Amino acid sequence: MASLETPICDFGWKAVNFDLPGVDKRRYDLASVRGQNGLLVMFICNHCPYVKAVRDRIVRDVAELHTYGIGAVAIMSNDPADYPEDSFDNMVRVAREYHFPFPYVWDETQEIAKAYAAVCTPDFFGFNNNLELQYRGRLDASRKEAAPPDVRRDLFEAMRQVAQTGRGPETQVPSIGCSIKWRAE
């Protein structure tokens, strides 16, 4: 399981639209998930220890960001053939177990992960209300284990700034996680 870091934020890059099935049997696109002040697009999965370490923090931060007008969606793009824990049925189970306050959608073809140039789980893309990229960094200092509870909330602070000013912080720390599990071509 390779650990990768996300690239530096490409400020102003426009969000790519999608139309993906959610674990709640609905379909989601950019218009249905964006908030009045921005959008957080997260590439996560069920099996990755980096994601498992922060699932409860993701839920907390997304719920709080909603009060700032930030919408959110989590996209699972891994190939479940080699990682059965990432199956759609398990996505449904995890979303229920953790009470995800955001749509959890499946990118079965992996086209959306490729369009976003997602590299790892978790990979966070924070957009302003014009759907221009303003944040591509970590949730916090957690790795395969959760950081202490009082750690700086990088993602939350950045997205709150985006909601209030339309701009993300100039200095961002890359996210780290497990590589996207691409299908063999």
TrEMBL record:
Highest taxon above the source species: Bacteria
InterPro entries assigned to the protein according to its UniProt record, in alphabetical order: AhpC/TSA, PRX-like1, Thioredoxin-like_sf, Thioredoxin_domain
Stored PROSITE patterns: THIOREDOXIN_2
GO molecular function: antioxidant activity; oxidoreductase activity
Gene3D superfamilies for the chain: Glutaredoxin
Domain Thioredoxin: from-to ranges: 9-161
Entry protein name: AhpC/TSA family protein
Species: Nitrosovibrio tenuis
Origin organism lineage: Bacteria, Pseudomonadati, Pseudomonadota, Betaproteobacteria, Nitrosomonadales
